[in-house]
Design goal:
Elements (H helix, E strand, L loop, with lengths): L7 H15 L6 H17 L1 E2 L12 H12 L6 E6 L3 H16 L6 E4 L4 H4 L9 H22 L4 H14 L20 H12 L1 H14 L18 H8 L2 E2 L4 E7 L6 H18 L4 E5 L1 H35 L3 H24 L2 E2 L6 H25 L4 H29 L6 H29 L4 H6 L7 H10 L2 H17 L19 H12 L14 H12 L11 H4 L4 H15 L13 H25 L2 H22 L3 H26 L1
Parallel strand pairs: 1-7
Antiparallel strand pairs: 2-5, 2-6, 3-5, 4-5
Amino acid sequence: MALPTDSFSVRLLGRLAHAVYHRPNWFLYPQIFLFVCCVAYTAFNLEFSTKRRDLVGANKKYHQNFLRFKEEFPGQDDLAVLVESEGREKNRQFVERLGARLEAEPNLFADIFYRNDLKMLGTNALLFADEASLTELNKTLKEYRPFIEKFAKATNLVSLFDFVNRQFRTAPRPAKTIPESQSTRTGPAGPQQSNEIDAMIKALPALERIIRQAGDSLVRTGTPPSPGINALFGRAEETEQQIYLTFARGRIYLVSAHAPTEQLNFPALERLRVLVRETQVEVPGVNAAIIGEPVLEYDEMQQSKKDTTLATVVSLVLCALIFIYGYQETGRPVKATICLIIGLGYTMGFTTLVVGHLNILTITFAPMLIGMAIDFGVHLVTRYEEELRHGKTEREALEKAMVFTGQGISTGCFTTAGAFLAMGLTDFKGIREMGIIAGGGMLICLVPMMTMLPVLLLRGKQNVLDHKWPAERDRRARIERLWLERPIVVGCLTAGLCALALTQFRRVYFDYNLLHMQSPGLPSVEYTMKFLESGSNSVLFAAVISDSVPEAIELESRLTNLTTVASVKSMAHFLSGETPEKLMRVGEIKREVSSIQFAEPDIRPVDVVELSRTLFSLKGYLGLALEEVRRHGEKDLENNLQCLRIAIEDFQQRLAYTDRSPTSAKLAEFQQALFTDLRETFDTLK
């Protein structure tokens, strides 16, 4: 067959058609081997980049500033557990138990933070407090000192409540009880004993808390946490609000931790999910979810991989089915689909070699490439089939299809690839990589479509059937003429659709919230949104680096005066030296607690019989005290005494209906946590 030779592309395609027809094996088996190599190379070397910062160009100034900040202040992103329930105590139990689990695995978790009490802040904790807080703490310690000194001698629950019984037993009966807010207590007792009584009265809510949590420990699995010694010095709810990381008025608690290194982010995340599930078994009725940038990055990449894999398979099958239905045959559409798969394999190898990784944007290239590259096969098969039905031989039909239709296929491929490759000139790294992968993939997929597919088309019984195809116009031609013969109608309809689309243009906007890219059903996304909504400030923040302390103080002052800045947290005041007044307050506190010595906690199982006897006596003393208080109308004290008495009754019922041996062991764990927490807290103050 004579072919025109007026252009380089025609001559090149003609020679390619000649080679394909006469040397088909050259274009078949080597490509299968190359496909296997590309798939193997991809499987062992392609990485998935979950870091959002990898989407940004490295030459951007703001990104360079961020990298400088990370270099000056190294640290991993937060892994945070959001805890939510209907009760504060459930939340507290959960974060305490989870925090203990995290602290037991320092190889995966560092910088664990779930409460800002003195013990967790370390030996210099007092220096982090302001002068007003230090003054209040010193005052509280002086008020509670008589009670604390007695408390320090207790080694277990029995000795603790024996001390409380002794205080009730030796307390003087005043002639008239005057509310504490109006006067000091009078009577035959001396000033020291009167102070001890006042301190114990203030500690009644703490004793109730200890008893209730001791009873609660009997019905929960796992090691019980300490009731929180800071609650001894104030109302539990108010104290917890200050100690723990709480949001939404105490309905939400937070536990924060870091992985020691960036490489351990995902192993730490997987382990954290296991620990959260274990803690939920011990504290049922709590909703807990892990949030934080590593979690979102991991979840979004896993979801993207899953969804993209599904979309790739669906698009591949859908394209093949549409191809099969449109041509009323299976052989050639399936052959084109096979060549498309070969091209995808080549593209994966190219991506691994040139880029080395996929991110949340580039992972979506496969479904797009399938939808565009299948057109190469559709056009080639259509022309080849048409020539056969017009009486041409297989060789003639192949040459016409590859030369004449091949020019259009190649031109369309190069123009589309050029548009994608132009994205490689952008500064945004994610878009640049997408352009390289998609543009290169278009060119690569052209290779098997123009070499391997013609080889496959020469084989099969469909070639024989096409030679016998009736000469009359087929159904596809009739469908085409529906719009080819009505250009005005088609033009008007197209213009109308364009006008309709333009009316909706104003509804298109840029969404800067990256959370909206996620699947709405992901727990990390739902709880991140809930966490953001529970806060009172914006989620936008900035980190400012200075070269000296005076410059940092000046920057802090300037930033504070900005109307667009809600708050400023600065390290400058901690580095500039403490004021003499603050150091004096710290010294007063240390002197106040220096003489308080705590006995070693009892590690033996609790004597349940002796504890029951002690509590029975305490309940009796509380009954007598209630009669006295009611006569003098002290409502607040009456309420505290009554609540403590009810707590003892509930605890006694649990002791009566549980096995003695496990109860003794569980209470031993509880009292060790309580007295160890108390001792370590005061050691920190010293």
